[in-house]
Amino acid sequence: MVEVLFITLIVCLLLGVPIVMSIGIATFAALQLTDIPLAILAKAIYTATDKFPLHAVPLFILAGALMETAGMSEQVVDVLESMLGRMRGGLAMAVVIGCMFFGAMSGSGPATAAAIGFIMIPALANRGYDKGYAAALTSSAGTLGILIPPSNPMIVYGVVSQASIVGLFIAGIVPGIFVTSTMILISYVICTRRNYGVKTEKPNLRELFRISWKSKWSLMAPMIILGGIYGGVFTPVEASVIAVNYAVFVGLFITKKLNMQIIYDCFSRTTIISGSMIILIGLSTSFGELLTLYQVPQQIAAMLGAISSNVKIIYLIIIAFLIVLGTFMDTMATIIILTPILLPVMVKLGVHPIHFGVIFVVTNEIAFLTPPVGANLFAMTGVTKLPIEQIAREEIPFIIGLIFAVIVLAWYPKIAMFLPRFMGYAF
Question: What angle do CA 50, 51, 53 make, to 5 degrees?
Answer without folding.
Answer: 145
